[in-house]
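Extended Data, panel c. Modelled sequence:
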Amino acid sequence: MSNPTNSTADVLALAAQKKIKFIDLQFTDVVGVVKNVTIPAHELTAALENGIWFDGSSIEGFARVAESDMHLRPDPSTFAVIPWLSGEDATARLICDVFTPDGQPFPGDPRSILRRMINEASEMGFKYNTGPEFEFFLLKPNSNGSLIPLVPHDKGSYFDAPSDMAAGLRRQMTSTLEALGLQVEAMHHEGAHGQQEIDFRYSDALTTADSAVTLRVALKVIAQQNGLYCTFLPKPIRGINGSGMHVHQSLAYIANGKNAFSDPGDPHGLSKIAKAFHRRAACPRAGDVPFWLHW
């Protein structure tokens, strides 16, 4: 998904090599909706070196009108070529951090909040890894083009053999995600009609969060290109299964890379850290919320 060795020079070289014409600069608002501003490729150098300004007062949860000036700084490690745009529309993507006019990380930027919590974990000697399972619905429009009432794309059920109507579409989605740098581990039909699941390999929490943003955008685009609508709403249709996003979590010791949750000498194989992690995550006390719940 990301390449931490990417520098400004690397990104500029890749953009030139791939004959990129446009750059999508992406970030999320406080409720996780992906936002985007597109710049011509000739503005890429300036964006990487100086960032770009935007009006934060129009973004959910960001700033009041009197405090509207916000600053996007692209993260070079997130450079990816968008596979569904080519030729004169060739476009690459960079995920951005949001800063205030005085150069401080914006406290309402979810990526900045997560980065702060990861740094807190690092100071404690831990690397925080996460791996999500994405469930979503594919819906087809009615004869008049309307999505209401909601109509599932297919009548498949849980783990059906890949002859259901969405099997080819899941493969197309997976190929697109892998072209964007995600390592897909599994895909299958979920329990409800029209419900799908695609899982990608776990990574450090920031890379996983960036991958989650990428997946949501990519799957919606691929669905739209096939005349469908993709939704991650938890309960779009009454009376049938809803969608969730299970997130596998683990801590590894930075010093040696070992799983901090494992203790072979324990009857259940769990270390004291694992038990404390579970206990606090389930029942945090006021004023004692661990770093992994802050975000």
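The domain at 128-247 is CATH 3.30.590.10 (Creatine Kinase; Chain A, domain 2). This feature is highlighted in the accompanying rendering.
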